[in-house]
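re: ur question from earlier - yeah i can do the single chain one, its not a big deal. heres the input i used so u can compare w yours
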Amino acid sequence: MSALTDRAAALLLDLDGTLVDSEPVHRESFRRFFAARGWHHDDELLAQFTGRRADDVFATTPGPWEGEDPVALFDEVVGHMPQDVSPVPVAGARLLVELAGDAGVPCALVTSAGPRWALTALELLGGSERFAVVVTRDDVAEGKPSPEGYRLAIRALGVPADHCLVAEDTPAGVRAGRAAGAGAVVGVSTSFPEGVLIEAGADLVVPDLQPLLAPYQA
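and the output i got, formated as tokens:
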């Protein structure tokens, strides 16, 4: 790839859309939620929830939900999650976590998801024990694009921020990693086009995580 990605001392990884292809599951949850409420929705509206905590979006974005409890709305969305669709690992994700660990490079998960979903999804990647640090929505006061989650993970790892690589699939996540001072921020174009992620601050954009395997396969 480049010196930027080859010299990472730690990997800080988003979950949905970066490690696991679960955005279709979440989008279907929101579609069912909006339909049940009788509220108009389109792809542009649904994209605002991608990579961010849903209650943060409900609290800060104008919409028919104004005046309602954002946390209660989020719980309602979770109740509409389809049970007949399961996430799958993004190409290269499981091997990246495995090879990085074998090379002594710690991995941290930094996600806007709750702990229950995070632990369920991490089973697809070999289990949460492969991650030295797990930061979920419950661990921070502010969700992405706030850098709080990444800063928390960096402190817990004890690695200088500029020696860390962040991988993210959304503009909010890219901005969070950039603001946390990560030495490299890689965009994964599973949810947004390359140009959108570059504009948000990504150093480079890859289609999945397979290009990040090279330093560990030499």
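The first strand starts at residue 10 and ends at 13. not sure if urs matches, ping me
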